[in-house]
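In response to the reviewer comment on reproducibility (Comment 2.3), we provide here a single inverse folding case reported in full, input and output, so that an independent group could reproduce the run without further information from us. The structure tokens appear first.
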């Protein structure tokens, strides 16, 4: 059988043509990158974990009426998704100061923010994803004022959901990034959460110890990334068995 048509390959995922019009298959690779791909590694099992974790978060959001591109998981590394027109923005929501915000504004990492803060970054690797304001977004036509209002509302609903789910298993949601896409129904357009939600795109700290359970483990060389992601998956009950290293066939005695 001919291999499905590849539509797009990014740093951590590949998109293939889906079985029906308007669908795609999203494949999760084991590649980890940071600092605009200056740091790169292949971490066996990461794709399997992110596929399961993104399924868990996206299907939870669908269940509470926050629309996402997620349809169903197909296998260990692939999920069926709705094809969307990606808005070229990364939407970051922050509850606690960390990462680039701490650096830029000189706020110590771990400082709680007085309210969730939503930021936008223009998705352009060559430019290093620069931060942009609503003024830029509207002036350059990436989204309308109405879209922006909807994107902020959507992101804050995702924040409430994810914060609650994580807090229930002893993990603080420090910040996260989502991407948002448009789905057209004739002339009617709606915005949905797209891409992925996983420890690659969130900062997750253990409530008691402050241990990092996210991609900072890779960015800052803090230990095993799969151990950290497996711990998140284990606490959420999404990995009932040890399936994280199933990319190679192994004999079971
Ligand atoms: N993030 C992401 N992709 C990016 C940039 C950031 O998923 O290209 C996530 C990151 O994991 C963190 C949040 O967005 O959860 C905020 O990241 P920040 O702006 O602090 O940048 P960083 O310190 O990660 O460079």
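Designed residues, in position order:
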């Amino acid at each position: 059988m001919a291999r499905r048509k590849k539509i797009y390959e990014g740093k951590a995922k590949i998109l293939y043509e889906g079985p029906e019009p308007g669908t795609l298959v999203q494949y999760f690779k084991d590649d980890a990158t940071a600092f605009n791909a200056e740091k790169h590694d292949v971490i066996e099992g990461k794709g399997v974990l992110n596929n399961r974790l993104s399924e868990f978060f996206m299907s939870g959001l669908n269940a509470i009426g926050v629309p996402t591109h997620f349809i169903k998981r197909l296998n260990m590394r692939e999920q069926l998704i709705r094809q969307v027109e990606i808005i070229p923005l990364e939407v970051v929501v922050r509850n606690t100061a960390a990462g680039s915000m701490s650096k830029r504004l000189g706020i110590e990492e771990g400082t709680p923010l007085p309210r969730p803060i939503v930021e936008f970054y223009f998705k352009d690797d060559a430019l290093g994803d620069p931060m942009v304001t609503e003024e830029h977004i509207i002036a350059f036509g990436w989204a309308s004022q109405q879209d922006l209002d909807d994107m902020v509302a959507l992101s804050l609903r995702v924040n409430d959901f994810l914060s609650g789910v994580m807090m229930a298993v002893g993990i603080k949601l420090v910040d996260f990034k989502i991407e948002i896409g448009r789905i057209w129904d004739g002339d009617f357009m709606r915005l949905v959460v797209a891409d992925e939600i996983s420890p690659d795109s969130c900062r997750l700290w253990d409530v008691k110890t402050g241990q990092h359970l996210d991609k900072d483990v890779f960015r800052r060389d803090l230990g095993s990334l799969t151990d950290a992601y497996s711990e998140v998956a284990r606490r959420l009950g999404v990995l009932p068995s040890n399936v994280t290293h199933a990319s190679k066939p192994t004999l079971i005695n």
